[in-house]
TrEMBL record:
Composition skew (Pro residues), residue ranges: 9-18
Domain (Fe2OG dioxygenase): residue spans on this chain: 193-294
Name of the protein in question: 2-oxoglutarate-dependent ethylene/succinate-forming enzyme
Family, as annotated: Belongs to the iron/ascorbate-dependent oxidoreductase family.
Database matches in InterPro entries: DIOX_N, IPNS-like_FE2OG_OXY, IPNS-like_sf, Iron_ascorbate_oxido_reductase, Oxoglu/Fe-dep_dioxygenase_dom
Xref: Pfam families: 2OG-FeII_Oxy, DIOX_N
Amino acid sequence: MSSVTPSVSPQPAPPPADEPLQQLPIIDLQNFAFDEAGLDRIAGHVDRVFSDIGFCYLANTGVPIEQMQAVFAASKAFHAQPQAAKDTLAINDFHRGYMAPKTSVIVTSSVAKVTKPNNSESLMVMHEVAEDDPRFGQALQGPNQWPADLPGFRDTVAAYNAALQGLAQRFTQIIARALGFAPEALDRFFERPTTFLRLLHYPSHPDAAEDEFGSAPHTDYGFITILLQDGVGGLEVRRRGGGWIRATPIPGTFVVNVGDILSRWTNGRWQSTPHRVQNKATIDRYSVPFFFDPDMAETISCLPGLVPAGETPRFEPVIYGDYLMERIDKNYQYRKTAG
């Protein structure tokens, strides 16, 4: 893999405990080319950051910047199509396809009472499930939908998706190490991962009211999110003590955050942090989040050794697929219509 060296400043020292964090931390992976001591240093940094705010930038991941640029170009080409062309790919029962603006409301948000729909549109691509797969036809186990009139679109998006899945699987071994386990300890949960790649477009909305969002305050459902954002900005992350930090775009990096399932797995040691998007710029914003989650059939319960002696786990075990479907069924208009 080729190296990406983003334009980043050296990692600043953490602020004193009584001083609020002003910038998301940067974790430099140096393309994972480390000895054991280097990997342990990265893992220790991940543990501190995910315990404190649950968000960071990842630099030097090995994903070529040309591939980042290509997926943005593909997304812009898709969203530039006539509305009628996009509507032919309307999201299907397997949660794959085009979501028109203002068709999702995050009613399951644990951090805000959300009543207005998100002002964004997107194309959702998930893990591929072949027709001869025993899971085919079950919840979220079906075909992706691809535009017919955009040459090269499918190949570009599929290649980016594969690169992000590889990054997520390697980073999962860093996560296991950060929690005190062998690097491969979590691998079995991701032999058939549940993945979502979302090509998001946020229209410019400079006069947005305080309760109007491209993405209303929420936490992510799953394990980790790896976000590629353009240079427009608009993502904000809530500090533990209150207030919001702008996740200012840094070229060549990803923004990575803990999801609800990973927080549950760690008994709350790591934070699934609320975040939101308001595009108050005078130009449109594009972002490409990749959500990397366990197999839907896996039972998620607190990992061994992460519950203090004499205490009970903070969260009951859940089957990931049940947990996920409850949220999808409540948050997306097409699910209610189908129901």
